Amino acid sequence: MLIGVPKEIKTLEHRVGLVPSSVKEMVAHGHDVIIETNAGAGINFTDAHYEEAGAKIVSTAKEVFERADMIIKVKEPQKQECDMLREDQILFTYLHLAADPEQAQGLIDSKCIAIAYETVTGPNGRGLPLLEPMSEIAGRLSVQVGAYYLQKHMGGLGRLIGGVPGVKPADVLIIGGGVAGFHAAQMATGLGANVTILEKSNPRMRFLDEYFIGRANIVYSNLDTLERAIKQADLVIGAVLIPGASAPKLVTKEMLKTMKKGAVMVDIAIDQGGCFETSHATTHNEPTYVVDDVVHYCVANMPGAVALTSALALNHSVLPYALKLADHGWEKTLAADPNFLNGLNVCKGKITNKPVAEALSLDFTAPETVI
Question: Is 96 a known active-site residue?
Answer without folding.
Answer: yes
